[in-house]
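Hi, here's the filled form for the chain we discussed.

Project: internal
Contact: R.S.
Residues: 211
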Amino acid sequence: MDREEEIEALTGLAADAGALAVPIAPRDVVVAEWVRFKCRYGCKGYAKHLSCPPYAPAPAETRAMLGEYEAALLVRFDGVPGHGAFGPDDIPDDFHMFYRDLILWVNTTVHRLEKTAFYDGFYKAFAFGGYPCAFCEECVAEEQSGSVDESFRRLCRSPDRVRPSMEAAGMDVFATAAKVGWDLRTIPSRNLEYGKIVRPDVVSVGLVLLE
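And the returned structure, exactly as it came back:
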């Protein structure tokens, strides 16, 4: 199977999962230092998931890796499965697992695309998901009182499936989405409260590097 056929096949698999996949040149994936600062200062999940900083690749590593690829797919997910219409009063303060169906939708789909490409002969295939990982009810890092060291990766309960999120690796998802014509917007939160978004029209994005 050549690259164009593989892209067509993976696009179909994404559609089967309810997602939209479009080709993007890896050089068009925007990587910026400020993205990791948003993780370090402002995210309750910092150091609590092995898919997130400080365990995820640094921006310099991400830029170097992208330079080794010539083809990729950007994958878009619209909406929040598992919930109908909801407002800020429906979202718990610890909202990570409230969005678990969404997180699993994103990360399971990009993982499947990566694995399919790998077994189709595109052995360099690698996926980036979104959000803090939710394969487990609680991450081994989350069970600790502070940051853990790299050795904790061997304790991961889902090592085959866990991939870093785009933002965790320093990718500017908004600017990258704009490269393929997607105009993503932030969603206001009630009284600026963390995570209490006022509408459920969430757009999530993943990335699959092919070769």
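Let me know if anything looks off before we file it.
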